[in-house]
Write a structure and sequence with these properties.
single chain, mainly alpha, two-stranded antiparallel sheet, 2 strands, 70% helix, globular, lipid metabolism, lipid binding, Insulin-induced gene protein, membrane
């Protein structure tokens, strides 16, 4: 007790505060990676069932008819995006002011899955109508669950980069889209990427907020 009062940090479950932050960062990254893998499997199943996405027979290697590399890539992207969003919030001094609860995050995930379901299941008159509808839904998802300028900007930038990467993969014959209408891919794909970035960003923010609350409680107890 005397050592604690005099300012000497007592021994705890971590060697230091840096180790604690590093461990928390790894745990958040692992959770985000798992979420990304799960969403990739579920959403790719929708696309393959509708014959929107076609993989060559020699790369189909899972029960969800997905190329083996798709889930790890999506998981890695989810981890990076989920860690980047709260970091950018702190850097820009733009707090996420909307109601932050896990139930709200789950609703965001449900809307994102619904947007993907619409792109795969609903028959539209043409691709332009489909693209405009998904664009409106994606922006609506951002407005409902985010509304931050940093969130919108990061969503647009990452969606653009992801679309370019997808074009390169399709161009090199890794996989293909049926009835492509925009440089080897479907024109609505950037909208899906944008909605996915906003969704994963909200999950990352919620995980970071939980860590912040725990650290605050520990500091008050000390």
């Amino acid at each position: 007790m005397a050592e604690t009062v005099s300012g000497v940090t007592p021994r705890g479950p971590y060697i230091s505060a840096v180790t604690s932050r590093a461990l928390n960062l790894l745990m958040r990254a692992a959770l985000l990676f798992t979420v990304g893998v799960f969403l990739a499997l579920v959403l790719n199943l929708l696309q393959v069932q509708r014959n929107v996405t076609l993989f060559p027979p020699d790369v189909i290697s899972s029960i969800f008819s997905s190329a083996w590399w798709v889930p790890p890539c999506c998981g890695t992207a989810a981890a990076l995006i989920g860690l980047l969003y709260p970091c950018m919030d702190r850097r820009l001094g733009e707090p996420h002011n909307l109601k932050r609860e896990w139930s709200n995050v789950m609703r965001c995930v449900a809307v994102f899955v619904g947007i993907n379901h619409a792109s795969a299941k609903v028959d539209f008159v043409n691709n332009v109508q489909l693209s405009l509808t998904l664009a409106a839904l994606s922006v609506g998802l951002w407005w409902t669950f985010d509304r931050s300028r940093s969130g919108f900007g990061l969503g647009v930038i990452i969606a653009t980069l992801a679309t370019l990467a997808t074009q390169l993969l399709v161009y090199n014959g890794v996989f293909q889209y049926t009835s492509p209408d925009f440089l080897y891919i479907r024109s609505w794909l950037p909208c899906i990427f944008f909605a996915g970035v906003i969704t994963v960003g909200n999950i990352g923010r919620q995980l970071a907020l939980y860590e912040y609350k725990v650290s605050q409680e520990k500091s008050h107890q000390d």
